[in-house]
């Protein structure tokens, strides 16, 4: 009989516990199921976005080969508005910027680079966009803006940014500052990068003693 009473007591305890906490358990399970479903739905959306962006990037490459500036600009706009969260968007911005610049559309190239500076997900693309945008600003004689774009580069890009800073300072006739920038570039450049080192050294030598 004691065993029977113990079982009955356990059942009553379970009933009491469920009466008190049952709703919480049910809602917790519902939330978990909804979260899991939402996560799967988001993964599906991301994959779908990546596939569609990849197809659009293929169209961009075709337009670049055909030197179709209008189509390049349109695809870049579509990529940024519809697929900005994918890696293809930053790749598109840099490729479109180069194509537009080569075709003489400096304003279009500048807009693409500015988008990449503000929106690129990968730091490599962001820093490369800054470097190229500084070059565009240099050509426009917007020297202060160019120098601002080259401020505080991450260590891996210090040499390239210093070299471009030297170019801007030369254009401003600030020879001493330019010499300092080129020397910094040489100091930061990989010893194995002989081609780039020779190029920077040439610019430094051209400034004289």
From TrEMBL:
GO CC entries: plasma membrane
InterPro entries: SecYEG/CpoB_TPR, TPR-like_helical_dom_sf, YfgM
Parts of the chain that traverse the membrane: 24-42
Chief subcellular location: membrane
UniProt-recorded Gene Ontology molecular function terms: protein-containing complex binding
UniProt entry keywords in alphabetical sequence: Cell membrane, Chaperone, Membrane, Transmembrane, Transmembrane helix
Cleavable signal peptide: none
Membrane topology category: Single-pass type II membrane protein
Keyword Transmembrane helix attached: yes
Pfam families: TPR_21 (PF09976)
All residue ranges annotated as the Ancillary SecYEG translocon subunit/Cell division coordinator CpoB TPR domain in the record: 15-208
Superkingdom: Bacteria
Compartments it resides in: Cell membrane
Protein family: Belongs to the YfgM family.
This protein's name: Ancillary SecYEG translocon subunit
Organism: Pandoraea aquatica
Lineage, opening ranks: Bacteria, Pseudomonadati, Pseudomonadota, Betaproteobacteria, Burkholderiales
């Amino acid at each position: 009989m004691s065993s029977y009473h113990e079982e009955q007591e356990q059942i009553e305890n379970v009933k009491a516990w469920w009466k008190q906490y049952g709703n919480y358990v049910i809602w917790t399970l519902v939330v978990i199921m909804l979260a899991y479903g939402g996560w799967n739905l988001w993964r599906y959306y991301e994959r779908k976005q990546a596939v569609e962006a990849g197809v659009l990037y293929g169209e961009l490459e075709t337009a670049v080969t055909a030197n179709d500036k209008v189509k390049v600009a349109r695809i870049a706009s579509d990529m940024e508005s519809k697929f900005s969260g994918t890696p293809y968007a930053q790749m598109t911005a840099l490729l479109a910027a180069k194509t537009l610049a080569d075709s003489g559309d400096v304003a279009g190239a500048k807009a693409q680079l500015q988008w990449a500076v503000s929106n690129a997900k990968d730091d490599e693309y962001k820093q490369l966009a800054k470097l190229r945008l500084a070059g565009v600003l240099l050509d426009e004689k917007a020297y202060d803006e160019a120098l601002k774009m080259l401020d505080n580069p991450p260590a891996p890009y210090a040499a390239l940014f210093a070299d471009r800073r030297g170019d801007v300072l030369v254009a401003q006739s600030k020879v001493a500052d330019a010499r300092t920038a080129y020397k910094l570039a040489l100091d930061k450049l990989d010893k194995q990068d002989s081609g780039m080192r020779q190029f920077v050294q040439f610019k430094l030598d051209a400034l004289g003693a």
